[in-house]
Amino acid sequence: MAELHIKKHSLAHIMAQAVKEHFPNAKLWIWPATEDGFYYDFDFWNDVISDADLKKIEKSMKKIISQHQKFIHFYVDYDEARGILKEMNEEFKNILIDRFESWDFKNQEKLSSGKVWFSINTSKGKSSEYYAKIQEYLKEKWYYDFSEMDWDQVKNLKFIDMCAGPHIDNSDEIDANSFKLAKIAWAYWLWDAENQQLTRIYAYAFDTALELEKHLKMLEEAKKRDHRILWAKLKLFTISDLVWPGLPLMQPAWMIIRKELEDYLWELHKTRGYSRVWTPHLAREALYECSGHAWHYLEDMFKVHGWTSKEDFFLKPMNCPHHMQLFADNQFSYRDMPIRYFEPATVYRDEKSGQLSGLTRVRAITQDDGHLFCRVTQIKQEVTTITEIIKEFYTTMWMTEDYWVSLSVRWADKSKYLWSEEIWEMAEKSLEEASQENGLPYKRIEWEAAFYWPKLDFMFKDAIGREWQLATIQCDFNLPQRFELEFVNEKWEKERPVVIHRAISGSLERWMWVFIEHFAGVFPLWMAPRQVKIIPVVPKFDDYAKKVEKALLDAEIRVSADYSADALNKKIRNSEKMHNNYILVVWQEEEDNWTVSVRNYKTKEQTSEKLSDFISRITEEIKTRSL
Fold first, then answer.
1. How do residues 251-295 score in pLDDT, each as one tens digit?
2. 595-600 and 582-586: which strand pairing?
């Protein structure tokens, strides 16, 4: 049985075949697999496609699968491929051949050697008029050796696409109920906003119908947890067009959560030798020229002009060049190493407007950033310490049951990466050995390294099984060299340090998005902005409610009370709507006995407790950061 990624790839062709049945003038572009399915980009010209058409296309796909269509291949040289695509009127694919001749594809030897592969779907029955025309062209113009494929296989041509594969052998390898067309979106041709917009059709695809059903249920649950809905409901933050999209404003409730998060992160670091630092939000271009970012990152940076100084500055897109300056302004010896800096600092990146959405993609990014400067012999120990912090943090957040680590390294063409082969080999080897010695569940992933260094990315699953890349550790031999950083070793010689970049939450904004959806807005008590709500049943008991409120405030518990004239049930509904962790209802019995009637929003439990016992219990819950 074919692997899932091969099924996804083959299903993309089947979808394109079905699209051509309903929209013969549609032109084809690309068709990659995704984590939960695949998509295909089309140009529909003057045709308009709607969600209703997706049902028709999906129905046609199931019919195609039932026809037991075979997938076969042939290849031709560039010029012959251009002729075939011209006959098919597939101008996008034809332009792609021009790019084959100029691009250096990753390990695509068949393409770079001057050959273009085509995929053909065949099955018994008459071909459409369009494909009959293509058959005739192939028959007249075929100049290559058929090798394993004979002409009889092409007589029942149902679909042809330019593709090297791999594909399934036959459509009956696919469960017709294991996929579902998801949505229509848009994408620019060649990923350039100056080019025309294409229509993208997304689909979900799995090995079995059961896996698809499970995924669809997860997506339904994800809709309920959507942070863009919950942030408005819970009044967490604000997006203002007057300020600028991508620059979220934090409401008081969210500021409480953020402060708790920052304090916890600092608590995890201060006992492990880190020093807290602060760096300004902008710098001269010279800083980024020295770091090398000016040559690769300038178009994503914000440039500002000082009208008094008459100088140009850049808002910082990352903290590391600033931290290099902190290290450089000291005279360290080997006895001081390692030096560890911690800074939850906001950086700025000019993201495209169309990609901005809630906290998913923003222009102001607060990283729980850390840079440590060490010797090569200290790398493994430092990675061990960072790993301990990561595990402790995500255990507290209930996200360590099933995680893995991506060791991102270069791919075969080493010319695409900065710095020397020696530096890269040292960095990759150090991270892999550290992963092995720390027992990390890692996988080597080629092509995923940044152009300037390898990294360890920690992949965690949230409460409904979605996987997120959050924490990261990056080993860097480059910046110390560019900034000429040095310390004095035991031989009184100058030695170059290694820099390890690490982030535990990744960025606070992205983490907050995952955090909201992971807990569905019902936050752990220690982080919750609304820990307790007091509700007097009638105004007569307001005085007792105020005494309860003061006792909780004295115990440093976040509390408020509803002294409105609303009915009890409405007060409770309003409190639950704002996800108060505990609701305390008070009236005669509670006042007489110094008790509170407790409603736990998360568990829906209702109990009666002595006020002092309740305070002791939730104080311990906060102190231990219980879930």
1. 999 999 999 999 999 999 999 999 999 999 999 999 999 998 887
2. antiparallel
How many other CB atoms are there within 10 angstroms of residue 131's CB atom? 22
| 410 CB burial (10 A radius; 0-12, 13-18, 19+) | buried
Tell me the two tokens of residue 426. Answer: 């040292």
In 3D space, the residue among 293, 277, 489 whose CA is nearest the CA of residue 371 turns out to be 277
Identify the residue whose tokens are 């079905």. Answer: 18
Q: Which helix (H) or strand (E) holds 456?
A: strand 455-461
Mean per-residue pLDDT for 88-110?
69
Please tell me the distance from the alpha carbon of residue 418 to that of residue 424, in angstroms, as a whole number: 9
Instruction: Calculate ∠ Cα 356-360-365, nearest 5°.
Output: 85
Rounded Cα distance, 322 and 325, in Å: 5
- Confidence class for position 30, pLDDT limits 50, 70, 90: confident
485, burial (CB in 10 Å: exposed 0-12, middle 13-18, buried 19+): buried
Q: Is the pTM of this model over 0.85?
A: no
DSSP string, 307-333: TTTTEEEEE-S-SHHHHHHHHHTS--B
State phi, psi for 238 to the nearest 5 degrees.
-130, 140
Strand partners, 595: 610
**How many residues would you count in the chain?**
627
406 confidence band (pLDDT: 50, 70, 90): very high
Give the sign of the dihedral formed by CA 285, CA 289, CA 291, CA 293.
positive
Contact indicator for 548, 584 with CB cutoff of 8 Å: yes
Instruction: Say how many C-beta atoms besides its own lie within 10 A of residue 299's C-beta.
Output: 6
Please, are residues 373 and 480 in contact by the beta-carbon 8 Å criterion?
A: yes
Query: Which residue type sits at 382?
Result: E
Which tokens belong to 504? 């535990």
pLDDT for res 412: 57
476 Cβ contact partners less than 8 Å away, ≥ 6 residues apart? 320, 427, 452, 453, 498, 499, 500, 501
DSSP string, 588-624: HHHHHHTEEEEEETTT--EEEEEHHHHHHHHHHHHHT
pLDDT for 420 beyond 80: no
Q: What percent of the chain has pLDDT over 90?
A: 67
Strands 498-503 and 467-476 turn out to be antiparallel
Helix (H) or strand (E) holding 421: helix 421-437
Res 32 pLDDT > 90: no
Strands (E) located in 78-225: 115-122, 157-162, 179-188, 197-205
Predicted local distance difference test score (pLDDT) of residue 145: 47
Q: Element (H or E) spanning 228, and its range?
A: helix 227-233
How many other CB atoms are found less than 10 A from the CB of residue 108? 13
Q: Is the pLDDT of residue 566 over 70?
A: yes
249, two tokens? 């404003």
Average pLDDT, the chain: 89
Average pLDDT over residues 28-34: 88
Q: What pLDDT score was predicted for residue 451?
A: 57
Rg (CA), the chain: 30
**In Å, what is the CA distance from 440 to each residue of 111, 384, 406, 434?**
37, 10, 10, 9
Say how far apart CA 602 and CA 611 lie, in whole Å. 20
